[in-house]
Specification:
The chain is built from 11 helices and 12 strands. The protein has 489 residues and is α+β, with helices and mostly antiparallel strands. The chain has a 5-stranded antiparallel β-sheet with strand order 2-1-5-4-3, sandwiched between helices. It has a 5-stranded mixed β-sheet with strand order 7-9-10-12-11.
């Protein structure tokens, strides 16, 4: 079954409701009209009966009684079936049908005469047809008594029968007219609704759908233009506004991708250049360091040059560290995961930084869940990651504080958290924190966290930071448990 469109749902729904209302109205109107027609015909029977009765009395008083039969024949119309007069014994003494004079009247007519307190119209069946009948007494007036020498109350009883065929035809005709009117109304309504929905709903919605299809195909410059101020107009305005925003966002993304691509290309070039320079610097730097250390051995401790030589050695070590960081960033080493005791690795880190932490009055707390055992990691690389984050935490607490190192397990993820109470990091700084060569310290290279991020991602993990200025920072590292761990961490 095919789904109906909004247009046809609206047309069918409106037409159905109209059909129900129109049908109810037509049915009610038909009943009222049928009642009115029936009431009018009953009054007509009474009127005809009264005319015949008055005509008979007038003719009798004028001595024209023999003309009454002719008068009856002239009254017979298509719907006036019979007119007769019978006496109290039920014998027909005059009739529009000559052949029934002298016969007995129908028992039903006689019973009606005796049972009714006043003349009323009633219906009865005869020869498979329905008739209106009215039995009217003809009173024996004083003038009649002089001629007929009869003191009885009634001179006779008038019986008028009118066929209901005309009424049935009128009702049938009215029903037919109502049906035709209802059908024509529905047809006209359906045509009007079809044209209206086509113009007001179907056409603009089709235009909106076509515009959205173009947008889906990549043409975000497509627009649906309309002058309407109704809901369709508001919808088109919202659609065009959304497409404009999407088009702008797409251009921004493309521009961002282009800038990022250019940056990556530059970084790649810088990395290659840095790698080449680092190689050129590393060996001479090692030679200079060795020569200075030999020279330092020949200088007495009380010689003023001893302090200068120490500064030179420190700067050489700093340059050597920078060169090593450049090489690590430009040419990352492929991890060599080994089954590593996580607790021992963390404790080894604390041993390395404990003296510096003690000097700065920083308390270090280790919290390792009991279900943490061994994990497949590159211990050397992760020692570098942990040391870098811990040193940064100590730098953020020059006047003391606390550093909590928490290791936990959640499903198939092992999480390392470094939570400090230092000066915190601003939102602007966090956006650039893991970018190469970004640093907030004059002595930093800006490569430490970038290298940490590379190492973590090479292990299939993630690293992220949350911070509040003046309240501290939290670095979290999540590493998935490898399948070859055999259930071990």
């Amino acid at each position: 079954m095919f789904p109906l469109s909004l247009k046809w749902k609206y047309i069918l729904g409106t037409t159905t409701i109209t059909l129900l209302i129109l049908g109810l109205f037509s049915w009610q109107n038909l009943k009222i009209q049928e009642g009115q027609i029936t009431s009018d015909d009953r009054e007509r029977v009474k009127l005809i009966s009264q005319i015949i009765k008055n005509g008979l009395i007038t003719m009798m008083l004028e001595g024209r009684g023999r003309e009454f039969r002719m008068f009856l024949r002239t009254l017979i119309a298509k719907d006036i079936e019979e007119v007769r007069i019978f006496n109290l014994d039920g014998k027909i003494i005059s009739s529009s049908i000559t052949s029934e004079i002298g016969e007995k009247i129908y028992k039903e007519d006689m019973d009606k005469f005796h049972s009714q307190s006043s003349p009323e119209v009633f219906t009865h069946y005869k020869r498979g047809r329905i008739f209106y009948s009215m039995v009217v007494p003809i009173y024996n007036e004083p003038a009649c008594r002089k001629c007929h020498h009869d003191n009885s109350r009634y001179r006779g009883i008038l019986d008028v029968e009118i066929s209901m065929e005309r009424i049935k035809k009128r009702i049938t005709s009215f029903r037919y007219q109502m049906v035709v009117f209802s059908l024509l109304t529905l047809i006209m309504l359906s045509l009007c609704l079809t044209l209206l929905t086509r113009y007001l709903i179907n056409k603009p919605i089709r235009g909106i759908i076509e515009t959205m299809k173009k947008a889906e195909d990549g043409d975000l410059s497509a627009r649906f233009v309309t002058r309407r101020k109704d809901e369709i107009g508001k919808l088109s305005t919202s659609l065009n506004s959304m497409l404009s925003e999407l088009d702008f966002a797409r251009r921004e993304i493309i521009d961002l991708h282009n800038r990022e691509y250019q940056r990556i290309e530059k970084m790649a070039s810088v990395g290659e250049l840095a790698s080449a320079i680092a190689h050129e610097i590393k060996n001479p730097l090692a030679g200079i360091s060795g020569a200075i250390q030999v020279f330092a051995e020949d200088v007495p401790d009380d010689d003023p040059r001893k302090e200068i030589i120490g500064d030179i050695i420190n700067e050489i070590e700093r340059l050597d560290k920078t060169v090593r960081n450049l090489l690590s960033f430009a040419r990352p080493v492929v991890p060599n995961p080994l089954l590593t005791d996580v607790r021992s690795m963390v404790e080894r880190l604390v041993n390395v930084i404990s003296n510096k932490a003690e000097n700065q009055k920083v308390d270090i707390n280790i919290i390792i869940n009991s279900d943490i055992g061994n994990a497949y990691l590159d211990p050397e690389q992760f020692q570098q990651v942990f040391l870098n984050i811990a040193i940064n935490a100590l730098h953020s607490m020059p006047h003391g504080g606390s550093l909590d190192i928490v290791v936990s397990k959640d499903d198939n993820i092992i999480e390392f958290s470094f939570n400090d109470t230092g000066i915190g990091i601003s939102g602007e700084e966090m956006d650039k924190l893991f970018k190469p060569f970004y640093t907030t310290r004059s002595s930093g290279t800006g490569l430490g966290l970038a290298i940490c991020k590379n190492i973590v991602e090479q292990h299939g993990g993630t690293i992220y930071v949350s911070s509040r200025p003046e309240f501290g920072s939290s670095f979290k590292i999540k590493i998935p448990i490898r399948e070859q761990d055999n259930g071990q961490l």
